[in-house]
């Protein structure tokens, strides 16, 4: 729970007493590589704060083709938010790519924390703001960028993920073939 | 300002006194068709709550090709949020497609309202949550859907916009040619 406090205090200072109030809303969970946190069709009870490990979130079409919406590593929050916030069945899958530890928070917990604590509502608003900006940037990138630009942007924004994620999935995330990605890799090393 | 109060009260009830505190943070502006609220390279001082009219937000690449990130009508909030929140120059353009009225809010105003009023922080968090879910959905749609599916989803989510926006721009938003869009239109009327 030390990591949780540090994570919150990166945004807003809280007292010991305030943190004692926050703690019980989170439950700790270990996740093994290849294990799913969410599968399409599930009821989405939790969102997850990642303490260690890496996940990928993807959409699977009717032909079994996988489309990666997002990767997430330490200190990222992750959920099929449409399902989580709107009480719908999951349309996305979240799978563990490296043994991981996460903290789980229910929507009821999130809303109670926000109502009871102005500081926690502030914390969640700031996190959402950053998430919103990242998604707006991803949309622009998907609409307009060349594979080369998308590759460079990914490397610039997420250098630590770049080294830990198999190339196959990076290619999928960028929407390019394995061959194109290999070419981009070797170009960038020249 | 009646519209503003109604818009806030769709999320959370506020007293007359609370509304009197909120009001001065917003400034009213009329916008003519074809007028820009933001152009690439601008400093982004405001986000906008649209009271009437329709806008489109787009990215322009080096070849002058336009990529539509979003349309927005009544009761939507709109800004180049990366620039607004992160104090960067705009990379997006926002242009008016129908004579409009908007309310303008600075980042300083937004943050002050949130710090001073737990209710307003709640209001902004809920709006961001909805916005975040909409962007996550748009990413999935861009990654995986066929033109037919994207067209149907757009019609289902935004029926009022569908009728007011020239087909040319809807085709651009969906990432299809004018010819494909015409075919989708006629198919859906059979």
From TrEMBL, chains A, B:
Transmembrane segments: none annotated. It comes from the Bacteria. Residues 29-106 form the Cyclic nucleotide-binding domain. InterPro entries: cNMP-bd_dom, cNMP-bd_dom_sf, RmlC-like_jellyroll. Coiled coil: none annotated. This is Crp/Fnr family transcriptional regulator.
């Amino acid at each position: 729970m030390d990591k949780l406090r540090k994570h919150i205090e990166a945004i807003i200072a809280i007292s010991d007493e305030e943190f004692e109030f926050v703690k019980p809303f989170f439950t700790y969970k270990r996740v093994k590589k290849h294990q799913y946190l969410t599968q399409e069709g599930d009821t989405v009870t939790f969102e997850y704060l990642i303490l260690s490990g890496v996940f990928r979130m993807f959409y699977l079409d009717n032909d079994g083709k996988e489309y990666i919406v997002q990767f997430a590593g330490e200190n990222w929050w992750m959920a099929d938010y449409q399902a989580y916030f709107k009480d719908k069945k999951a349309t996305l899958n979240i799978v563990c790519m490296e043994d991981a530890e996460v903290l789980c928070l229910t929507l009821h917990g999130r809303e109670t924390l926000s109502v009871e604590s102005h500081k926690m509502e502030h914390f969640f608003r700031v996190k959402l703001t950053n998430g919103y900006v990242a998604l707006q940037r991803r949309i622009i990138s998907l609409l307009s960028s060349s594979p080369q630009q998308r590759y460079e942007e990914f490397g610039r924004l997420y250098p630590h993920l770049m080294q830990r994620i198999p190339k196959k999935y990076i290619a999928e995330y960028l929407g390019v073939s394995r061959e194109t990605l290999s070419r981009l890799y070797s170009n960038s090393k020249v």
